[in-house]
Amino acid sequence: MTENDNGEKTALILLGCPQVPVQTSMALYLMHGLKQRGIRPVIAGTTAARKLMEVADPGRYYLDEMTDLDDAIDEITGKQRDFDLCFVFIHNDSGIAYAGTMAYISKARLYALLFGEHAEELAGEIEFPCEVVAAKAVHNPMPLKRRLDEVMQQWAAVSKR
User: Fold this and answer.
1) Architecture field, domain 9-159
2) Residue 155 pLDDT exceeds 80
3) What angle do CA 51, 7, 152 make, to 5 degrees?
4) Per the confidence metrics, is the pTM higher than 0.90?
5) Within 13 Å and on the Cβ side, how many CA atoms surround 153?
């Protein structure tokens, strides 16, 4: 991973429509894992997704920074900002479009986190470079949590080298 100008590593977490229940809990879990590794998470999401995050973390323990999804994309496109890592939560075709956009405009290492009833089918539609983390998780976050834990363990192995 690279560091930003101030030496801090950052990760953008893109949240789309929170139609599938596991998205909010998994975003909070991911933010916890990132913070433990010294990486500052930034949430970019739809209004509904941001409101759910605010309610889930009222003390702002994990939510250091949150912004509108389109504003974040505009900042990256305008070269005002970029991130070391980017995680896009995907449960439908528009999520894939957002991930594809990030693959094109950002230098961040991209992770496509696919969940929901059709996670595996959606994973087959990805035609851009990224790490795919897919699990059929709708109400129970544990299948996606296990896959995400595997990714975070890989980071730990790389940082020890």
Assistant:
1) 3-Layer(aba) Sandwich (3.40)
2) no
3) 60
4) yes
5) 6
